[in-house]
Amino acid sequence: MAVLNNIQALTHALDLAMEKHQNVIVYGEDAGYEGGVFRATVGLQQKYGEERCFDAPIAEATLVGTAVGMAINGLKPVVEIQFEGFSYPIIQQLFTHVARMRNRSRGRFTCPMVIRMPMGGGIRALEHHSEAMEAMFAHNPGLKVVIPSTPFDTKGLLLAAVESPDPVLFLEPTKIYRAFKQDIPDEYYTLPIGEGYKVQEGTDVTIVTYGAQVGDCEKAIEHLKGEGKNISVDLIDLRTIQPWDREMVIESVKKTGRLIVVHEAVRSFSVAAEVIATVNEKSFEYLKAPCARVTGYDIIVPFDRGEHFHQPSVQKIVVKIKEVLDYQF
Amino acid sequence: MYFDKFNALKNEKLQIMDNTGKILKPELMPKISDEDILTAYKLMCLSRRQDDFQNKVQRQGRMLSFLSSTGQEAAEVAYAMQIIKGKDWFSPAYRNNAAWLTAGIPMRNIMLYWCGNEMGAKTPEGINVLPVNIPIATQYSHATGLAFAEKYNKTGGVVLTTTGDGGSSEGEFYEAMNFAKLHEVPAIFIVENNQFAISTPRKKATKAINFAVKGIAVGMRNILVDGNDFFAVYGAVQEAIALARKGEGPSLIECETYRIGPHSSADDPKVYRDEDNHQEQIKNDPLIRLKAYLIAKKKWSEQEQTKLDAEQDQFIKDEFAWVEANNNVDLKDIFAYTYEEMPNFLAKQYEEAKAFFEAYPSKGGHH
Ligand SMILES: Cc1ncc(C[n+]2csc(CCOP(=O)(O)OP(=O)(O)O)c2C)c(N)n1
């Protein structure tokens, strides 16, 4: 067992992946010599050489476009994009080729690759460094989208992403990169992409969330306990956004009759919208209150000085839980 | 006069003044008044001192990361002072402090921006400078479009734009220049080659002999200049602007310079930079060079420098005091600019947010 934070868990997982799979190639802007802007790839070039871990020119479209060629030709590229806000140049390759190659070639050619990028806000960053655009990626068929919330999950899901026969977008909440540590096993292990994790079991309300907001939801539940409210929450960490664990969520809502989805991404056309629509389709008759969501507003992510208004805070979650529990038809 | 003489393919570099301030090639001196040279020098000093000040307050947690122009002031001031306010355009990158000051952006705006407040990005009326451009090299396309419009509207303005050495790897760098050349628009494309893209050295960005030759593939006039030599940059830009105004199309100018500081405050260049080379490079500091030139010409003295330093420090402190006193963001502000007319659904979200923050006031700040 080793006590690691999310970044260290990432580096550790990449190391194990490179050791086990000779075809894994790690690259990105500044990802080689210095180990990336957040140091996720630190030490890998020194250990595996410049051919397997290197600095790439600033050309995101080509970073992912070359990954298409590499993947078709037997390699397993693990590409680092410096921030999710700089993923826009890759959209062309991602949506027109990465996501479609299997379908287009009727299975003859495929693009298994991992594209890693820091995501989300709360880090006092500049413009374009705080976006949460998971819904945009998830909306495009052919891609898998993973967002881990703990070092244990980060390691297991990253190794699963490397093994995935389909392309995986691995979105890493920057806010929790170094926020806490966790004991994680030394050995190689994977966690299934598509399965959620029950953070705590409860009977009054289901909260569905992922990434940095898992911690916020836990704090909100603690806060309510501190107020003397005896509220029993079924807290689900989705862990993967596409595919997501529909069964776990529906089963939970059938038990609690209430649903709140929490994420920092903007509200309209979001993961929350998708989860709530699915719950309505599959378990409408169990609902005791309208499904609710705590999300960012439908605005451009504000700069640091205004960001606190936009982010889903513990307080916003607390208020929403009370509202949903107090709801009377 | 410059573009014809220096062949970038042979790595010929325009240099007029050496690093002791001595004029090596008097015949190449651009047309510029002594008064303008002094103004330029003062702006270079101001930007340098602002960078130093911001580094200090950034370490105290009073400012976010910012990208300093330290080491690149000669290039930035030399091109930016040739922008005619209200007529010409500047489409900047994110590392352009000296250029912004020179182009007339108030220092307080720049500081407000790096303090995380969108209001800092609002260019005052009468100045045509686009906001800070974080996504790399995309500003080149904007420059092409601005210049296309100048030509189309026959308004006579020219457009300057700049990117780093790393930025020249983005597709849009080529795409924008190709478009600009095809339409012979009045744009001047500048590469501020400061030798690094974060930690990645220039030699890992390209195998090309220099960045100026990247203009050749699109048929664009190009030149490599010593970017720490104020007169070299001034001259090349002067000629490029004159040609653009005459309808003779765009130019590419590489200013070979050096980033003296870190990429940003999050970065430690000692990890990837060669210390011996660093010591060599800082001998070319553009401020030292122009100062030596001015002192030799008896246009400047150490006494005047001491006085200027004190005045500039006071000015910088006053600007930052204003920023700290005015760095509030209203809830309404984060909603107001998403659309010209706030759609109904968003107005409702705003009302919901307002009710929430009235019930649960937020101190702001950090999580
Ligand atoms: C499209 C895009 N990709 C990545 C980044 C992250 N990034 C910020 S600065 C930088 C290096 C830029 O180097 P260079 O173009 O040489 O300019 P310099 O910072 O040296 O002035 C990178 C990769 C970005 N801002 N935009």
UniProtKB/TrEMBL annotation, chain A:
InterPro entries (UniProt xref): THDP-binding, Transketo_C/PFOR_II, Transketolase-like_Pyr-bd, Transketolase_C
GO molecular function, one term: oxidoreductase activity
Pfam family, one: Transketolase_C
Keyword Oxidoreductase: yes
Domain of life: Bacteria
Keyword Chloroplast: no
Keywords linked to the UniProt accession: Oxidoreductase, Pyruvate, Thiamine pyrophosphate
Cofactor(s) recorded in Swiss-Prot or TrEMBL: thiamine diphosphate
Domain Transketolase-like pyrimidine-binding intervals: 4-179
Protein name per UniProt: Pyruvate dehydrogenase E1 component subunit beta
Protein's organism: Spiroplasma chrysopicola DF-1
Automatic annotation (TrEMBL), chain B:
Cofactor: thiamine diphosphate
Gene3D superfamilies given in the database record: 3.40.50.970
Cross-referenced CDD domains: TPP_E1_PDC_ADC_BCADC
EC number(s) reported in the record: 1.2.4.1
GO molecular function: pyruvate dehydrogenase (acetyl-transferring) activity
Stretch forming the signal peptide: none
Top-level class of the enzyme under EC nomenclature: oxidoreductase
Keywords: Oxidoreductase, Pyruvate, Thiamine pyrophosphate
InterPro entries per UniProt: Alpha-ketoacid_DH_E1_comp, DH_E1, PdhA/BkdA, THDP-binding
Functional summary from the UniProt entry: The pyruvate dehydrogenase complex catalyzes the overall conversion of pyruvate to acetyl-CoA and CO(2). It contains multiple copies of three enzymatic components: pyruvate dehydrogenase (E1), dihydrolipoamide acetyltransferase (E2) and lipoamide dehydrogenase (E3).
Protein name in the entry: Pyruvate dehydrogenase E1 component subunit alpha
UniProt source species: Spiroplasma chrysopicola DF-1
